[in-house]
Amino acid sequence: ALALPQPAAVRSRPGRVWRWWNLLVSFAHSVLAGLWALFSLWHSPELLSNIQDGYSVSGHLLVCFSSGYFIHDTLDIIFNHQSRSSWEYLVHHAMAISAFVSLIITGRFLVAAVLLLLVEVSNIFLTVRMLLKMSNVPSPALYEANKYINLVMYFAFRLAPQAYLTWYFLRYVEVQGQGAFLTANLLLLDAMILMYFSRLLRSDFFPSLRKGSAGRDVDGEKFLID
């Protein structure tokens, strides 16, 4: 990330430099983890029939890898004094780290984690969207194309797996111990995803519905604000 050139729009605004580097690292994680999750499910489709106790070495390593990214990103936010503007990410990462560590230790629900990590396929295009906005890309057609691809990927790899896992946990998983903890995390994540989806729709498809964003400086904001 440090070796890649920065667009003029980023270099001219010091507050954007950290965010640009942080997003590039996030983009790299999304590409690796998203493709890894797809490969794990394609290579071992039988895992989908045993979400609670299914196991694969590839899936286990993927969860370890993504846990490492979440820990790294948390420390990056804190050490660069971005906690206030990126507090939502800190909440999300705390949920993800605690849930993933419990899966790594017990070896249960790893398939659920792999399904959740399909969200990283969607994050590829969401991160590209934010990078394009920050760099003031001169080609509106590129942003427009990514906007619609991003919406499709949001449904296919974020909303659909999340909805399926929520239904599965509420119907089949006992609400006690690890099952109760993961179900609570899942429901909180549902609320966050729906909130971000509404922001995305208002920003890219219904800009007239946006409130309180005019003139707001979001250079240090990591989450989807505009």
TrEMBL record:
It is a multi-pass membrane protein. The keyword Cell wall biogenesis/degradation does not apply. Residues 15-209 form the TLC domain. It holds the Pfam family TRAM_LAG1_CLN8. GO terms for cellular component: plasma membrane. PROSITE patterns: TLC (PS50922). It is found in: Membrane. GO terms for biological process: membrane assembly; phospholipid homeostasis; plasma membrane organization; regulation of membrane lipid distribution. SMART domains: TLC. This is TLCD1 protein. It comes from Menura novaehollandiae. The lineage of its organism: Eukaryota, Metazoa, Chordata, Craniata, Vertebrata.
